Amino acid sequence: MAYIGNTDADRRIMLDRLGLSSIDDLFTDIPADHRFPELELPPAQTELELLRDIESLAAQNAAGSGMLSFVGAGVYRHFIPAIVSYLSGRGEFATAYTPYQAEASQGTVQTIFEYQSMVADLLGMDVVNASHYDGSTAVAEAAIMAVRSTRGRSQVVLSGTLHPEYIQVTRTYLKPQGIAIDVVDPPEAAGSTGPTMESLLAAIGDDTACLIVQNPDFLGRYVDLRGLADQVHERGALLVVHIDPIATALFTSPGALGADIVTGEGQPLGIPLSYGGPYLGIFAARKELVRKMPGRLAGQTTDTTGARGFVLTLNTREQHIRRDKATSNICTNQGLMALRATIYLAAMGPKGLSQAARLCWQNAHHAARLLAEIPGCSVLPDLFFKEFVLRTPVPAADVIARAAGAGVVPGLALDRYYPERTHEILIAVTEAYARADIERLADAVREAVTRTADAHAGKEALR
User: Could you report how far apart the first and last alpha carbons of the chain are, in Å?
Assistant: First the structure.
């Protein structure tokens, strides 16, 4: 290695100290068939050739601005005030690095402090960190924190209507640590709305560290969580609630409902779709759990002259203290995304955020009413926020493909995650859509359902 000065003798000394015979022994935790895969990369290209290839690949994508899309499933199109991109794009923010030295990073640390303060107020929680990669990693870290906080319990219960990808990420995090996962009643059958409160509580045993629920859940359903925290606590476990931050402006905060840990995907707070990221993992907890909390916390203090200042505190990460004492190895505070969320919340204010939430509710329910009028179609669940499931009389994939040909993407076919749900579309409608957009959605779906049904009837006639 041209840039690493270790000699063979140096490596031998390090391996001996670790009790290993070869460097290969360092990788035994990785399944053998996944070690050192052949990348099969194409030959090197000139800059001009590379640009041509990239442009040809980009041309295969449909730009979000050129399609009317109602795809949600964890990532949503919301209105973003122009001030968010303007301020967050300033050089002193866009180039700022991790604030290890508070005296040289007061602007960044203050931003983190303001982010924490506003999100804590929004969620009704005592303390918020800054932060996690995205909503899925926040959920996984919440499960690990719950196990650590309940001292000896080594199982977590997940609601089956938690985002399927969040369940996958949580499995990835927890399996190497020997933490068992029980996913209760995933909504695999057509028309299913997932587990009941009774089935979730029944799954909590003596070894359960926490129950994790999503509200609104993956299918859009808003669940009444009143009283759930008390029943979870009676069983000795913690309650983790994964939220939509916009919905918290309309419904009772998770903190007021007794949640111990709250996670969320911060993308709706002023962060564009960006083809899948980067996003922002929201993570909040009760004060009693703060010393078990992963990630960074910024605090307010005074300097020797009495002037207000900001510092990082309780930095229980391996970069700051001994590895065996660290609560997490996350290496980001998603600073730029947290900054966007901070500017968004400040610009919108409580009134603006509440108005956006109400418009989400009104637009989504208006869309559901129009779509339910299409012959053969129906909507579930009954109580939802900005997302719902449309059941179609013909395969959902065909409906989506035909509507997309007319410039409208109605939503996500649920058989992507639940193979048996072939006639259902998950549709998201936010405040960013005008009534004309919603009417265009209904017209496109009606036309696609009719044409698909006619095409299927024609095939049957030919048989």
Answer: 67
Question: Tens digits of per-residue pLDDT, 281-339?
Answer: 999 999 999 989 988 889 999 988 999 999 988 775 555 656 667 777 776 778 899 99
Claim to verify: residue 318 and residue 393 sit in the same structural domain: no
- Of 295, 314, 345, which residue constitutes the final position of a domain? 345
Of residues 71, 79, 72, the one with CA closest to residue 409 = 71
DSSP 50-98: HHHHHHHHHTTSPPGGGSEE---TT-------HHHHHHHTSHHHHT---
Whether residue 418 is found in the same domain as residue 355 = yes
Comparing CA positions, the residue from 286, 342, 305 lying closest to residue 146 is 286
pLDDT at 5: 86
Residue 76, pLDDT score: 97
- The domain that contains 92 carries what CATH number? 3.40.640.10
Q: Considering its fold, how many domains does the chain have in total?
A: 2
| 400 and 450 both lie in a single domain | yes
N residues, the chain: 463
Q: At what angle do helices 435-462 and 396-405 cross, to 10 degrees?
A: 120
Structure tokens at 105: 């990073």
CA distances from 137 to 140, 217, 408, 457 (A): 5, 17, 31, 46
Tokens of 226: 């009143």
